[in-house]
Amino acid sequence: MITTPTSAEKKVVGRSIVWLMLSPVIKIWPELAAIVAAFLVGAIILVVTGHQIGETFAYLFRGAFGSRLAIGFTLTRTVPLIFTGLAFSIAFKCGLFNIGAEGQLQVGAFAAAWVGFALPPLPPLIHISLALLAAAIAGGLWVLVPALLKAKRGVHEVVTTMMLAHVGILLTRYLVFGPFKAPGWIPHTPRIAASAELARIMPPTQLSTGIFIALACALILYWFLWKTSIGYGIRAAGLNPHAAETGGVSVTRSIVVALVISGALAGLGGAGEILGVFRRFVEGFSPGWGWDGIAVGLLGRLHPVGVILSAFLFGALRTGGMAVARATPVPLDIVVVLQAMVILFIAAPKLMKILKRRGEKE
Amino acid sequence: MIDIWNIVDIALFAAMLRMATPLVLAAIGGVFTERAGVINIGLEGMMMLGAFWGVATSHWTGSPWLGMIVGMIVGGLAALVHAFLSIKYNANQIVSALGINILALGLTPYLSAMIWGSRGASAAVTGLPRWEIPLIRDIPVLSEFLGPHSPTVFLMVIIVIAAHLILFKTRWGLHIRATGEFTKAAATAGVNIQRTRYICVVISGVLAGLAGVHLALGHLAMFSWGMTGGRGFIALAVMIFGNWRPYRAIAAGLLFGFVDALQIRLQGIGVPVQFPQMLPYLITIAVLAGVMGRARPPSDIGKPYD
Amino acid sequence: MTEDKRAPTVEMVEITKRFPGVLANDRVNFSVTQGEIHGLLGENGAGKSVLMSILYGLYRPDSGQIYLHGAPVQINNPAKAIGLKIGMVHQHFMLIPNMTVAENVVLGFEPPGLVLRSRDISSRVAQFAAAAKIKIDPNAMIEALPLGTRQRVEILKILYRQADVLILDEPTSVLTPQGIDDLFTSLRALRDQGKTIIFIAHKLKEILSICDRATVLRRGKTIGTVEISRTDENELTEMMIGSKMVPTRRAKKASNGKLILQGEEITAINDRGVVALTGASFQLHAGEILGIAGIEGNGQTELVEVLTGLRRPTSGKIMLNGVDLAGISPKAALDHGVRHIPEDRHQRGIVLDFSVMENLILGDHEQPLFKGFLSQLKYRFIRRFVDQRIDEFQIQTPNRETVTRSLSGGNQQRVVVARIFNRELTLVIAAQPTRGLDVKAAEYVRRKLIELSDQGVAVLLVSADLDEVMALSDRIIVIFNGKLTATSDRPTRRELGLLMLGETKDRS
Question: What pLDDT sits at residue A360?
Fold first, then answer.
């Protein structure tokens, strides 16, 4: 029996085509809404403090994307954020909060620097690999105690990773002010050997081949989490430890593996900065990449592709913010405020769901 | 050779008391929220906001006392955001508190640049006065230890005692402890879980704000970027080391305050300061690991309840 | 006064409460009058606790009305119930372990005034306890008290709240026989003071010895209310268990298959540290379905967990084809061919936020079948495999990538069942496999279990549904209080029912 579609049916078909076209937007609607809401709050703060919204946001955009140079700077800042965003994400995929990435990043950075300046010049590939390896091991070890305490004794990893982060920061500060300080006023170590340097790919910006390492890590992490049985176990343990256990997944092993990889990624993030950008361990080289990784991971929905995108966004914010600070009286810190607002808006799933429902009605 | 008595003298203990004050105040705040079952790692940010607004208020009005009150109110408001997101909207308690921390980290230098033209430091403002206790003014050693101090130091002692009394000697304290320990049991006994949690989170913000005010108006009479220096996190360490009890928290706070005061002295004679600075963090991990004593957090901590 | 007496103290009319996939209360009617001990009887899952949670304001009914002394009331939360002088002793005690007896008793109902003097409240509580003839040390910490004493604290707590209606949810489950006698003495005393007591239980003897009247629920429905003086065990058993349509008859087989599983004196403790399984011994042969009948909470969960590697037995042996499985990991159990349909689908069965595909390989994801070089999952094969499974097991899902949470309970269970067939298996532990399923889905699961046993797999069926156990099993063992009791070759429903209720065999 053949019937002609009724008008109601046509309407449904028409609507579903619209939905299909909108679906990628709708899928990331909560994140988009959070970003938009954050910018709205930022705009309000700008207005209240007597600044031009249009001008500020224009400088922000131009500073981040306006020229080849701007994009180079943005990408430079994207690199460490990809690492720390991935670090936060893999731990969270296993249901764990590694909020101590900053400490793991610092010890990783120092380990890479040490391999860079303490070893004699080696073939570049070997030297760089050794430095990266040292950074990953240092970062991984730095989270091992919290991982074991969580797995064996159920000690909440939030407190332990955070406390150890501060210890890591202090330890590297001691090392760079003390035994490994290069002569001179500035607290930094000797320069790493040329053979340990990651090549700059977009001079005069400091963007280095580190970006390829970051992208490769994202790719490998995606493969690991979604394509291997170990990653499968980690995700199962994160979503439902009881069912995972029943399905033969060792939840304790998953916890340790996820946290150690998380720490290793943060450590690599530190190495990328040292080998690619600073070429030596400099006190205060990190403006808090480790802490920012939390926001990057959350906004990126803990997915490597999302992390890359949100790292780019936060990198752009920081770069644009610097342009804003140079060109206008608006301080750089407005971007930190924007970042905080993004976190607060995506923090409450129920709140965003309400916004989402309203959004879908329209 | 270093003469140990050049380092360890009565002024050091007075400094200990000053250094311990913000740690203990914020830790008491932590005791309140965690006893009610809400984690608050946003103490650092609330402290920073309290410090900033305290200085700004003193800058505008010339009254450090008003600054103190505003600092406490702003800390409380920041905590209210955390409470609102985590209690009403079931936000992850860690994430929403982190948001507060980052907000403070961005907002305070931003506004500092607006007000004083420098994101690094404020102008000098009128700080809180220094008080002495009249009766012991003439007792040699004791007077040096106990004064002159900022009123916040004395307030801290009063707050610790009050917190102990509230938590363990009032009906409302019973409600708080029951809520954090076994939320469902408290609810079936008729305790209003939401209200208890809201109030406790706000109290933690107010106390963290006061801690910030102590740093900014009681100590330096100015605001500088990042002046809280992770004390909000050490306060969590104090809370844990103090086993979520006010009196033990003051003991832990004095210990860490002593370390803080000592490292400034040691800095003066060229000893690396980082190791004593690590101590609070390492002690906390040791305590949590059960290597040193045993810390037992409230059982139902971090669990949303509707 | 006489007016009050005639209107029931509590009357619950046409109460309906639905949970996802379960109709817990289906137009239930229930009423009690002042000064009686009223039993609320039924198997686990009959809806007793839900009904009483509604009365105590923990759940809201979907429809129906509650009357108190004839007046309609709305009970939205426990505080409201307390205000209406209703008190409840929960099966899992609502006591704060690191507080004293006195603090727990007065919590939420403290003497007026800001200051709470611990000496003051303990003397108050001591006085009150003395008046209520309850022996207790008000300064003792709850965590230091045995379970029986904690129950006294709970009762004291609701009396302190001036409750007129006392609900006790399975109060005897934590008591020794001596403790039960003490409890009954105090309950009678309370009744004589004019209190109304609702006594939830599944033990017939207790209902018969303490209650004045009893209401029986079965599968969420009221079966009836009887005067205890005019009834007997037979009638109550019949009301509780009923006679239902038998789901799937099968030809019973003689158990002449190879011995697959032999439990030898298995003992285990539960999460609360109480012995839950005492010297359980049994045998299970290839191609046999062994039914474990019993009211829930008698050690079934622990038995299943011990057999699947989720719980380490304190002693005993679990011989599977000559290998001792006691204390091995869940993964090792899986590798030995032990498959599991967990009793709690959402907690242990599936990862709700995984896709159907991901759930269909859970437990086998480390198998060479699915796992290749570098632990990589062979998705190309898995996708084909999973599509086939979805077809074969008629799992109603838009596609394999659909989040399992969005499937109906029946289809979620099909995922769990389909998984069993992923690889070679020798033994299936099916725990409450049809709970919460509609008739069609339940029937499907049962057919699959039969299919498995026809293929020579040994099946251990643990179910609180007596009809199911009787219809499917070749042999039946009854579990009561952590002990296993073998039954006769073809046990009658009555024989099983009484064993399940803790009666000894020779009494029936």
Answer: 37
Q: What is the pLDDT of residue C485?
A: 86
Report the chain A residue with the minimal C-alpha distance to residue C353: A239
Query: Which residues constitute the domain of residue A342?
Result: 56-361
Are the Cβ atoms of C96 and B181 closer than 8 angstroms?
yes
DSSP class of residue B295 equals: -
Question: Quick check: B194 pLDDT over 50?
Answer: yes
Residue in B106, B278, B289 nearest the CB of A170: B278
What is d(CA C255, CA B296) in angstroms, rounded to the nearest whole number? Answer: 54
Where does the pLDDT of residue C2 fall: very low under 50, low under 70, confident under 90, or very high at 90 and above? very low
pLDDT at C255 over 60: no
d(CA B228, CA B251): 21
Question: The dihedral of CA C128, C131, C134, C136: what is its sign?
Answer: positive
Does B177 contact C58 at a Cβ distance shorter than 8 Å? no
- A228 touches C: beta carbon within 8 Å: yes
pLDDT tens per residue across span B144-188:
777 788 899 999 999 999 999 999 999 899 999 999 999 989 988
Decide if A34 is inside a domain.
Answer: no
pLDDT of residue A22: 64
pLDDT of A345 above 50: yes
Task: Compare CB distances from B181 to C78, C98, C111 and report the shortest one's residue.
Answer: C98
Mean predicted lDDT score pLDDT of chain C: 85
**Order of strands, sheet of C71-73, starting from the edge strand that comes earlier in the sequence:** C22-32, C10-19, C63-68, C71-73
Inspect the interface and report whether the beta carbons of A178 and B233 lie closer than 8 Å.
no
Question: Are the beta carbons of B278 and A167 closer than 8 angstroms?
Answer: yes
Pick the CATH number of C2-85+164-239 from 3.50.50.60, 3.30.420.40, 3.40.50.300, 3.40.50.2000: 3.40.50.300
- pLDDT classification of C463: cutoffs 50, 70, 90: confident
Would you place residue C135 in the very low, low, confident or very high pLDDT band (cuts 50, 70, 90)?
Answer: confident
Determine whether the interchain pair C116/B188 forms a contact, defined as Cβ–Cβ distance below 8 Å. no
CATH of the domain at B172: 1.10.3470
In chain C, whose CA is at the least distance from the CA of A230?
C375
A41 close contact with B: CB closer than 8 A: no
DSSP class of residue C68 equals E
Q: Is CATH 3.40.50.300 the right assignment for the domain spanning C259-353+424-507?
A: yes
Query: Is position A33 within any domain?
Result: no
What confidence score (pLDDT) does residue B49 get? 96
Contacts of A235 in chain C (CB under 8 A): 354
Asked whether this complex has an ipTM greater than 0.95, the answer is no
Instruction: Kindly determine whether residue A155 and residue B288, on different chains, have CB atoms separated by under 8 Å.
Output: yes
Do C348 and A227 lie within an 8 Å CB cutoff? no
Q: What is the 3-state secondary structure (H, E, C) of chain A?
A: CCCCCCHHHHHHHHHHHHHHHHHHHHHCHHHHHHHHHHHHHHHHHHHHCCCCHHHHHHHHHHHHHCCHHHHHHHHHHHHHHHHHHHHHHHHHHCCCCCCCHHHHHHHHHHHHHHHHHHCCCCCHHHHHHHHHHHHHHHHHHHCHHHHHHHHHHCCCHHHHHHHHHHHHHHHHHHHHHCCCCCCCCCCECCCCCHHHCCCECCCCCCCECHHHHHHHHHHHHHHHHHHEHHHHHHHHHHHCHHHHHHCCCCHHHHHHHHHHHHHHHHHHHHHHHHHHHHCCCECCCCCCHHHHHHHHHHHCCCCHHHHHHHHHHHHHHHHHHHHHHHHCCCCCCHHHHHHHHHHHHHHCHHHHHHHHHHHHHC
Tell me if residue B4 falls in helix, strand or coil: helix
Q: Which of B84, B95, B267 to mutate to test the interface with A (most CBs of A within 10 A)?
A: B95
Give percent of chain C with pLDDT exceeding 70.
92
